[in-house]
Amino acid sequence: MKEPALKLLLDAVYEWESNAPDRIYMIQPKGDGTVVEYSWRETLDQARRMAAHLRTLDLPENSHIALISKNCAHFVICELAIWMAGHATIALYPTLNADTVSYILDHSDSQLVFIGKLDDWDEIKQGIPESMPGIALPLSPETKYEAWEDIISRHEPIEDSPSPPADQLALMVYTSGSTGRPKGVMHSFRSASIPARHLIEEQDISPDDRVLSYLPLAHVMERATVECASFYSGTQIYFADSLDTFVQDLRRARPTIFMSVPRLWLKFQQGVFQKFPPAKLDRLLRIPLVRGVVRKKVLQGLALDQVRLAASGSAPLPADLIDWYDRLGLKIVEGYGMSEDFAYSHMSTPEKRRPGYVGITPSGVETRISESGEVLVKSPGNMMGYYKQPEMTAECYTEDGFFKTGDRGEYSSDGLLKITGRVKELFKTSKGKYVAPVPIENLLNSDSYIELACVSGLGRPACYAVLQLGEEWRDKVDDDQARAGITAHLEQLLEDVNTQVESYEQLQFLVVLRDQWDISNNFLTPTLKIKRDVIEAAYEPHLDDWYASRQKVIWQD
């Protein structure tokens, strides 16, 4: 059978503009309780006007243009304008500090910066060179730059419908930088288009679907599965206004597709338990006559009652949490992908899924496990390379074109992949044994008392873990009785975990931290993954005392 012609991102967008111009595409809250709706006609009209302006700037062909914004409709419109004008987008996380902003703008050779909706403009603007020209999107903070609305009001929309060559650079995703400086992952229109098109086919996504966009669009997962996929599917995108209004935004959207991360799935469960004690909910779900009513009530309370496709990424979901949502009738599928393959590597389906596994290879993806246990991927989404780092790019590929993910993994007999740790995260104890921390962290993170854990023990006689308690328990640590109960629970957890790992992997103690790991203090990446090296360095001065205490649970007061 002949392979269908490659429809690139902009080609797909022009089809919606032509065939369904008045269909509502994006719904943007304004911050005052009202919303603005953008049809495909209005979306493309603004993009074409801004593209006309960019063409007047006499920028070099395929220039790099930066975009710093929280998720909003004009993030998407701006990116379309950049592409129509023949340039490439460099999207920066809206939570970065000034130093990282400065580094990325310089490293990426950005010629211009668009400033969008932001919470911490005072910090970010310190990283933008005074000489760099800029444009302020709607909903941006007050800046010195000319406003988007003023610019598009004086330009007529471009009349042509340009579609850059498939192998031209479309965007760079700067990795979240769990170690060292972030790298610029280059994607062509081809490597961004094929995964987006295949995704909607694999998951049967249609124009009738609705999605709430709130995970950062600067991250590859949201960029690929929400923005770029919507260019092919026509799915309606609702945007969240703020953290404080998230629940209202969710209720307004009533999404049919909902993607999240394990921390939020756990928070949803904890919110349900505040209204339905676990024992009572469990009892009601066992009664056939009321089970359906209870499920509906719980999911309506979460505003997830319309969801037909629920997905989770960035870290493994605990098996018991998956089982709990299954009992509510919400089958969460997991996926596995990277910036380097445009988030297109493995995905579960409602029919083929299993706790602890991240899915099967979708259409067009080849994988294998190396002799050292590393997952190797050849995906149509594989990057062009790391910007300005050809040697690093070469090191990351096998001779036959498979990307070295850096993740260790194994396949089940029916093709489901389990991630068992990071190749470079192995550490050796003083007894000479190598330990993979991630599987042990997954065991700890599956406990309802714990939000995040970091396992270490490099050069020490035994492993240990530092913990962040879940919000529900964090507020109770100053109550002596509550603390005693938490301590007893964690002592039992320590014993349970140690029965599930090898003797040389067993934890000597758990440390409950007062410190809060956050993006702002550099303990977490913008996608809420732990920065292992930062955490280990922060608590290194305490290790001798912790090991000497011989306590099973240590409180950092």
Kindly summarize this structure in a few lines.
With 557 residues, the chain is an alpha/beta fold. Helix content is 35%, strand content 21%. Strand 1 (24-29) and strand 2 form a beta hairpin.
Structural class: alpha/beta
How far apart are the termini? Answer: 67 Å
Q: Indicate the proportion of strand residues.
A: 15-25%
Oligomer: single chain
Biggest sheet strand line-up: 7-6-5-3-4-8-9-18
Shape: globular
How many separate helices?
A: 19
* Helix share, percent: 25-40%
The radius of gyration computed from the alpha-carbon positions, rounded to a whole number of angstroms, is 24 Å
Overview of this structure, please?
The protein has 557 residues and is an alpha/beta fold. 35% of the residues lie in helices and 21% in strands. It has 19 helices and 26 strands. Helix 2 packs across helix 3 (73-84) and helix 7 crosses helix 8. The protein is globular and about 70 Å long. The N and C termini lie far apart (67 Å). 45% of the residues are buried. The mean pLDDT is 91.
Topology:
Blueprint: H1 9-19, E1 24-29, E2 35-39, H2 40-56, E3 64-68, H3 73-84, E4 88-92, H4 98-107, E5 110-115, H5 121-124, E6 134-136, E7 146-147, H6 148-153, E8 169-174, E9 184-188, H7 189-202, E10 210-213, H8 220-233, E11 236-239, H9 246-253, E12 257-260, H10 262-275, H11 278-285, H12 288-302, E13 309-312, H13 319-327, E14 332-336, E15 346-347, E16 366-369, E17 374-378, E18 385-386, H14 390-395, E19 403-411, E20 417-422, E21 427-428, E22 434-435, H15 437-445, E23 450-456, E24 463-469, H16 471-474, H17 480-498, E25 507-512, H18 532-539, H19 543-549, E26 553-555
